[in-house]
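Please go through this chain and its backbone structure tokens and walk me through the local backbone shapes. Keep your notes short.
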Amino acid sequence: MTANVINLDRAQIAQASEILSNAFDSDPIFRYMMPSEEARRNATKLIFGIILRENQHCQHIYTTTPELKGIAVWVPPGRSALSFLGSLQLGLLMPFKLGLPALGRALSLFNIIEKYHKQDMQRPHWYLANLGVAPAYQGQGIGASLLQPVLQRADSERLPCYLETSTNSAVRFYQRQGFEILRIPELPQNVPPMWTMKREAR
């Protein structure tokens, strides 16, 4: 099954945040950072909302039509997923949403992920910040469809793509889309494993 893919409209950000929050609710890394289910749901909706608002104007956030079933957030070469103001906004709000212990885990992990990203991808590249499909629609080819606009553009521009993921099933999914494992980052004890992946232009 393929999906009709369009750019996300700003009016759809709240709904898109909800979809991403639901899609990542069982993600091992999010559960490690935010063990409390209520705090995790509240925090992830806030996090995804800020990321979506920060990147929507670039027109590289994709969803399905007529019904929003999934979201792909791509960050173009030379940009960050969050601006200084976006990072500041998260920094001010997260202590109230998460509490200090969970915030400390999240910041520590974010710094590690950023370190490997900068170290391993020093040339221009497309970054897949988030890909999530509503649980009711997973396994129907929607995720693959949402990737296609930027994968095709990256191929035409001869640029690589980069992402991080945290489940074996996601690794296998991305391998089917042409990504290869780049690194299994060294993480603190008790942190679930993560993989960084790279796709060279075809």
